Amino acid sequence: MAKITVLDEHIANQIAAGEVVERPASVVKELVENSVDSGASKIEVQVEEGGLELIKVTDNGLGIESDDCEKAFYRHATSKLANGRDLFQIRSLGFRGEALPSIAAVSKVRLVSSADDSGLGRVIAIEGGTLKENELTAAPQGTDITIKELFYNTPARLKYMKTIQTELGHVSDVMYRQALAHPEISFSLRHNGNTLLQTGGSGGLLQVIAAIYGINTSKAMIPIEGENLDYRVTGFIGLPELTRSSRTGMSTIINGRYIRNTGLQQSVLRAYHTLLPINRYPLVVLQLEMHPSLVDVNVHPAKLEVRFSKEIELNAFVEETLRQALSQQVLIPQVAKQPLGKPGSGSVIQEQLRFPAFRPDSSAESAAPAAAAVPRPAHETAGQALPGAAPASGDYTSPAAREAAAAGWPSALRERPAPGSFAGSAGGAAQPSSAPPASRGAAAQPARPADADALYSAPDASPELPAFPELTLIGQHHGTYLIAQDEQGLYLIDQHAAHERVNYEYYYEKFGKPADASQELLLPLTLEFTPAEAEKLKDRLSWFEQAGVILEPFGGGTFRVAAYPYWFPEGEEASIITEMAEWVLNERQLDLAKLREKSSIMVSCKASIKANQKLTNEEADTLLARLASCKQPYTCPHGRPIVISFSNYDLEKLFKRVM
User: Fold this and answer.
1) Phi and psi at residue 144, to the nearest 5°
2) d(CA 516, CA 372)
3) In what side-by-side order are the strands of the sheet with 250-254?
4) Beta strand 186-191 with 42-48: parallel, antiparallel or unpaired?
5) Which of 4, 151, 234, 423 could form a disulfide with 358 if both were Cys (CB 3.0 to 4.6 A apart)?
6) Is 620 left (phi over 0), alpha (psi -120 to 50) or beta?
7) 267 or 413, greater pLDDT
């Protein structure tokens, strides 16, 4: 007797609903995407009880022809595809024809739609997959679809729904992503009569970000724009101090479709390299445009995941675009007391401070450097130059930047000078502490090797380009924070974080060619590991050689350190190599670039001055000079801020000199 049977249409739709309709937010997503595909310029969504009792989506799009209204609820009925070739050039958000029949199978649906402005449309009512009503009715152009009692006929699904607030959170998230993906459409979301989202539909992405995340957040966003032969990326990314505890603030939109892609998220995080604290994530809205043939959207039931035909090239393009945008910023947070939420809350927010351009004069360029008094990395000589700054990118202003300016908010394209145009103390070492404060701030440039002229050659810089501020040292607070000033205000500098950044860039360059600095030991060090760790290390000894460390088995779980780079901090050699070994043992896949990165961070931390360590004026001045010469002088390698500023206006407000 045959055991295989063909399921009837009703059961098949309920099974499909399990894939497409996971929760109320899934229904909202499918219906809103249909409205977007219809060319609507205004989409209103109303939900009750988290969407379990009612979901109503109204748009002013093209509507559905009267003869097609019932057909739209058939499985695999769609107007988006005509033949198999169309699957490889999908430009619409929906295309499978599964959403409406799947929703109708587990709820009570009422559809009213009209394809013209004649005032005549059609109403369709379906309950649990059964047609209840199909007749002509009066209706404006567009579509109005109401979903009631979701999962009323599948109590097992209803049982596993979360709380109303949880489901509402998912619905809101769907609407936020759709609004970010289509700023040209006016979206509104109401829950139990309360408006949760309202966008104007003006086409300005920054206005949508302000409507979703708030005005203060939108002011801390940086516009980005990049293009190559295959891809174009636009959008906004948050300043490093604007972080979240999870990746939910990272929105990636491909051809108007919100997607989740781990590779692109990793590219974004790599672009923020050392700018973010540990376990913190940026707020990012990326809009990517590409030919439909370069992306396959037919790989996920909810179409949230896609496949790229040139994923490696895309990830590299996104990373480089974001990295360039961040390198053009002066990333010094400004502490400003501004109320957030309720009046009198006393909350403190951080905003970006703008600095005037500074071009060192010829005398500063040619002045001989003084001896550096601040503790340097081991065996560093006065003739070794620090890495230069990131190159400037010219005077181009993107449409996103013009939008930010039109909104009346601070310009986000605040570029840093290119290599060679050091600002103030960025130029070099300190003058003696007996010099007046003004002269100490304008110090000479550090010594450079003869072959560094090309690297540090001064480019044609625009006089409007801001630079790292020219700071004049005031003193030290509790042996931990340096206090400095300029014409703009007051600055606090974390001396450990500053020295750590200086050392990190020094050691990162050194680990790029560690074999040249490796020296054999007359009295080798010995390190001990467990038998299991020792066996694993024997297969990975070549990775230590890439870092200039020669590690040899010495019997049992003991290893002999025969050589290491001479610039390892004195007295910290064993602990550094032990930490390197622990990292190598814990990594599943070893990567030379990552090993170089981790090793540089470990060595720089151990070689840096610590908190509660007194510095002389000369040492502090030299530290500020070397910090300003760094490629990225705003955060330590762990992502903590180095410099925080108080503007003159904020100080005057604190002392009630201005009201």
Assistant:
1) -130, 115
2) 25
3) 221-227, 231-238, 284-290, 250-254, 257-259
4) parallel
5) 423
6) alpha
7) 267
Exposure letters 234-244 (e unless 16+ CB within 10 A, then b): bbbbbbbbbbe
- Crossing angle, helix 164-181 and helix 24-37, to 10 degrees? 20
For helices 495-510 and 617-628, the axis angle rounded to 10 degrees is 50
pTM for the structure as a whole: 0.69
Mean pLDDT value across residues 372-383: 41
**Could you report the per-residue pLDDT of 209-236, keeping only the tens digit for each?**
999 999 989 999 999 999 999 999 999 9
User: In this predicted model, which residue has the larger pLDDT, 290 or 365?
Assistant: 290
Q: So what's the pLDDT on residue 46?
A: 96
Please identify which residue in the block is written with the tokens 């100490």: 440
Which range among 105-109, 351-355, 406-410, 534-538 has the greatest average pLDDT? Answer: 105-109
Rounded CA gap, 659 and 656, in Å?
Answer: 6
Phi and psi at residue 544, to the nearest 5°: -70, -35
Spatial neighbors of 377 by CB under 8 A, at least 6 apart, are 503, 506, 507, 567, 569, 603, 604, 607
pLDDT band at 411 (very low <50, low <70, confident <90, very high): very low
